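Support request from a user on the community tier.

User writes: "When I paste my structure tokens into the form, the page sometimes reloads and wipes my input. The last time it worked, I copied everything first. Here is what I submitted, just in case something in the input itself triggers the reload:"
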């Protein structure tokens, strides 16, 4: 029995009686035990409850009772998404013992369809980072080469899926945090349209641009998960009151006759040679599949990194103000109490990247600088959205490499935050514009490191986006993870 099967294959075998959920989950837990000391994808693993849940689902199937559409599928969840009875730490000392009293909507929807939550996976602290090195529990490592970063901030999601430690995962994407690890770990990662998937129970970082998104090894698995988690949620007023599409239906419709635009500003200066070559090969592949490929210019992207970090840091500064250690946190002992000194000491337990972004956010929101920085960033955001809207009047989809460079070694860039921020240039546009984007594995470099391609669609056009991603996937044959 191979762990590297699609969800469709898994569900078919389980329902036909050819595969025991308990056996599959047990083998997955064995895999975690085998590789976790080298990869560090998980922060919390719930082996006992996972095994109990698997046995219960097997009994339901044997008794002929209805099971959910996920029927025991083992999944991991990024550790900034709330889960009842399982701690949610955000990879921070501030929440290292916090156990939420409720499930996030996406988690409750997975459970309602009989998915098995194996555990919570690693991330950059409070989802602020793009390497998973900014975790108080230590970095996750890329399963293609454990000396290299897996991307972030949903690095644990990318690693756990790539290394066969689960079948799929839920991450969050604020500026590329699902697509970056998907590209670096050779898996599929989708950032949905803002408002398509509930954020209720996602620990807030930047409310106006973050989205929960699925990670899996195949596009068809992403489509299946989207059928479960998408849709309006009365607990989240930002979710759209519209009926989601059936993303599984007609997934193989193809892209013949589609017009796809290569974003000029995402495929020029700054691309590593092998990423550039892979992009050219992807365009040729799309054209072989029947699409027409053209070049599209989005001038506002030049200002996107500055605008993104201004807006995201401002919202982070506001959101993280709640962490004063009065309602939840850790015990300082009997040291007396003076509010300013106490809060200052508490805030000293944030890691360097969270501290950096909180200070930046407080600065751009302060009197005298609000108009100079924050309002200008919002104007750039509006300009990007306007240019995206204009582009979709002439093309059906956009394409670019997901990341401009190959995965790099752990510790190589951590002391240069500006270089790290600039690496988000290809992913943040989708967040600022609120549109969906997906990273699909496309190539392996000469050094054995993954390269992903990004496809972008107009708002709520996930169905067309997944069809295009599926077509690209079906024409690409890549080796499995070597670890």
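"...and here is what came back when it finally went through:"
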């Amino acid at each position: 029995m191979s762990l590297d099967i699609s969800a469709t294959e898994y569900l078919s075998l389980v329902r036909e009686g050819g595969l025991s959920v308990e056996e599959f989950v047990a083998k997955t837990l064995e895999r975690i035990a085998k590789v976790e000391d080298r990869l560090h994808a998980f922060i919390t693993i719930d082996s006992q409850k996972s095994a109990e849940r698997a046995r219960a689902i097997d009994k339901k199937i044997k008794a002929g009772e209805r099971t959910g559409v996920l029927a025991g599928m083992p999944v991991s969840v990024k550790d900034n998404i709330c889960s009842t009875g399982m701690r949610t730490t955000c990879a921070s000392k501030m929440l290292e013992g916090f156990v939420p009293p409720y499930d996030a909507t996406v988690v409750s929807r997975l459970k309602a369809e009989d998915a098995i939550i194996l555990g919570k996976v690693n991330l950059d602290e409070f989802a602020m980072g793009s390497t998973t090195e900014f975790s108080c529990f230590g970095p996750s490592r890329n399963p293609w080469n454990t000396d290299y970063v897996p991307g972030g901030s949903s690095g644990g999601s990318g690693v756990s899926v790539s290394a066969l430690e689960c079948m799929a995962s839920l991450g969050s994407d604020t500026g590329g945090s699902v697509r970056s690890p998907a590209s670096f770990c050779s898996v599929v990662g989708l950032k949905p349209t803002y408002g398509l998937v509930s954020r209720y129970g996602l620990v807030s970082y930047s409310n106006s641009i973050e989205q929960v998104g699925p990670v899996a090894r195949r596009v068809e698995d992403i489509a299946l998960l989207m059928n479960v988690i998408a849709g309006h949620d009365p607990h989240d007023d930002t979710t759209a009151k519209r009926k989601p599409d059936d993303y599984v239906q007609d997934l193989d419709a193809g892209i013949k006759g589609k017009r796809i635009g290569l974003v000029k500003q995402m495929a020029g200066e700054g691309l590593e040679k092998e990423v550039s070559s892979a992009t050219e090969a992807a365009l040729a592949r799309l054209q072989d599949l029947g699409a027409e490929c053209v070049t599209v210019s989005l001038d506002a992207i030049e200002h996107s990194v500055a605008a993104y970090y201004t807006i995201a840091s401002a919202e982070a500064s506001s959101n993280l103000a709640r962490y004063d250690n009065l309602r939840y946190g850790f015990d300082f002992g009997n040291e007396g109490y003076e509010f300013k000194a106490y809060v200052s000491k508490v805030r000293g337990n944030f890691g360097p990247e969270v501290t950096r972004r909180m200070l930046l956010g407080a600065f751009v929101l302060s009197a005298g600088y609000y108009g100079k920085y924050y309002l200008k960033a919002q104007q750039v955001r509006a300009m990007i959205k306007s240019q995206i809207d204009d582009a979709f009047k002439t093309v059906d989809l956009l394409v670019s490499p997901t990341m401009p460079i190959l995965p790099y070694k752990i510790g190589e860039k951590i002391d240069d935050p500006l270089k790290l921020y600039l690496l988000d240039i290809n992913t943040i546009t989708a967040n600022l514009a609120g549109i969906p984007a997906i990273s699909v594995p496309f190539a392996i470099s000469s050094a054995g490191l993954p390269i992903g391609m990004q496809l972008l669609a107009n708002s709520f056009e996930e169905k067309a986006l997944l069809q295009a991603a599926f077509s690209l996937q079906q024409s690409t044959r890549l080796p499995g993870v070597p670890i």
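Agent notes: The reload is a front-end session timeout and is unrelated to the input. The mean pLDDT is 95. The longest helix spans residues 370-391. Escalated to web team.
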